[in-house]
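sorry for the late reply, my laptop died twice this morning and i had to redo everyting from scratch. anyway the thing you sent over, i finally got around to it. pasting the sequence first so we're on the same page, its 808 residues, then the predicted structure underneath. double check i copied it right bc i was rushing
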Amino acid sequence: MKDRLRHEVIHKLISITTGKMKTVTKRLRKTLIIVSGSLIGMILVILLLISPIARHFAIKYGEKFTGRHIEIGWLVVNPFTGYVYLSNLKIYEPKGIPGAKNADSVFLSANGVSADFAMLKLFSKTIEISEMTLYQPWGIIIQNEKQLNFSDLINLFKSKTPGKPHKGIRFSLLNLTIKHGEFHYRDEVAHISYFLKSVDIKSTGVRWNADTLAADVSFLSGPASGSLKGHIMMNFKTLEYKFTAVVKKYDLGFMEQYLKDLTNYGTFRANFDADLSVKGNFTNGADLNARGMLTFNDFHFGKDTIEDYLSFDKLVLQIDELSPLNHRYLFDSLSLTHPYFKYELYDHLDNLQMMFGKKGSNISDAHANQGRFNLVLEIAHFVKVVVQNFLQSYYRINRLAIYKGDLQFRDFSTSEEFLVGLNPLTIIADSLDKNHKRVHASIKSGVSPYGDISIDLSINPVDAGDFDLQYHLKHLPVSLFNPYLVTFTSFPLDRGSIEFNGVWNVRNGMIQSVNHLVLIDPRVSNRLKNKDKSWLPMPLIMAFIRERGNVIDYEIPITGNLKDPKFHLHDAIIDLVKNIFIKPSTTAYRREVRNTESEIEKSVTLKWEVRQGILLPGQEKFLAVMAEFLVKHQDATIDVYPMQYSRKEKEYILFYEAKKKYYMRSSARGAAAFSEEDSLKVDRMSVKDSLFVRYITEHAHDSMLFTIQQKCANYLGSDVVNRRYKQLNAEREATFMTGFKKEGVEARVHIHQDESTIPFNGFSYYKIAYKGEFPESLLKAYQKMNELNNEPPRKKFKKDRKKNKSSF
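ok and here's the structure:
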């Protein structure tokens, strides 16, 4: 009974306790739900409200703090994780910045900016952004002399107490990433504009207790082609840096903007490749150590996109070590492919001074303007310093080579254009080492239009006044110098070649040299009468300076020093005296040589004076003999090859027609009233006549026409010259065939297509080739010429005559 009662009491107590516990549990659960809901609600409220509040304060106080209007599309802030995201961020220019339009120009924008803050570190006075990413940022740097459009931001964040360690809040920015950015630069004074696109930067960032920054960088050239990928590391405290870079076909056309400050006109283009590793210090430009390869391609600099003054296909520099501070310049190779340089001389100045100002005045003015930065001048200054340092340092170039060079010189200051060039020019030098006693170089080139030159050089690398030189110039036509001969003597030469060779031994600047000049078979042509041509009795002068074998052969020793050389002309004087007293006794021999040469020459060529359209009496007589020869020899035929010096012919036609047009207008004469006497006056009028030059210059209306040829062509028009040149060739062919038609043998005379060339004799001519029978007079003349060439006065130069293109 008692046990039963006890069990019932215990059971009842358990029931009551369980009920109460259930009630307490229900109440606790309800409380937890309410608290949790409240917390979640508070978090949601915070998350919902903090982003717009933060956006409001960022715009309001950001503008108040920076002085710049700021726009944000939307902003997300998570105060619990430290995550922040801004969309469509725009920061505008401040007021008063040159180039900004009433502060409505965007300074920096981004499609998005995300950042992760280390929240717990805020309690230790440390602001650490553990990761930050800018998506498609766009920015611009505007410079006006020394003022930049972000100078206000630099001043804003600059330390109030420079040089003292910061004891307050510590700031770190880690893992900075920029994706697909675009950044512009504009110089308001120099009118320079450039930008980079597809800019990607990934950096480990900066820590408050570290001084280094490292980043991987890649970008593309904005306005043109080219890419760069590299890695850079910099120490902000010591300003030391290291970087590696791989550059592919990077366009350098933007440098043309800097050249406009230095030139009156001109265009520039080039690109470069590089694979470099460089380290140095920003505080000292000489503290530089570089290695790798640098290649410049497709370099062009000149008057316009068509006419170059300087160009090359490729310049390759393989660097083993370049260290100005340590005075070490070690290169594996330096090669230049197809360099081209053109120097032109005008009546006033030359092409370089026309471009850069008289005596480089444009460059001097740019140097004097200290307030304006010019990248070209900075590069030129750096190169100048490096070259000066190079000559005082240890240097080594395992191989230096220049291939297919083309150097041109054109002189328009004479009465007609003078043109000569070195092409193709090859320079090879192996093992240029300052520690070597001698450095050897070989230079070989063709001389255009005819000739060859070779130079062997051995030089002391530490003393430019210690060298040995051997040179040989050969097969150069004397007619090449007709523009000068005509200008200063009125007489051109239509035969002859030049050979010039010598040996120089120079020690401590003191010269010992022997130079040998030989002119083979020079012959004076007919005098050209014109007001701008001086007159010298060239036939008489030739009679004194030519030797019996129709050569001019002089030894010209040079001694003294490089600054004051002494030319010894005793050999020339002795030869002159000999010619006065000895040559008269050989007059008959020389006359026989001249007559024989004339017989051969007129049989195989017919020379045309410039603008000559009709035959001279002697030429008519010879063609009549040729026609009779064809009549007598029915199996014989003649092939005629017109070799036209079209460049010179057109130049003379241009001058004559331009002067004729000027003469007719200035004298109010019509075409019908233009007489032979007027034609003679026009022909003798100087192309450099001041009134004529002033007239065509005023009618040119183009400041880029520097030569009298260009001004005449502009005044006259190219169609007139081409039409008149075509008429001239037709006249020559017709007058040549007249005698053959008269005898009825014109069918056996075949005139071939004209060939435009630069003849060795300096004149257009018809080359005559015989098939079948040869004229007996020609065969006899050849036989006689061989006999004469074997006689003592001419035998010495027999081999040279065989190589002479003007000998027959």
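Residues 97-102, 160-165 have pLDDT under 50 and may be disordered.
thats about all i looked at so far, will dig more tmrw
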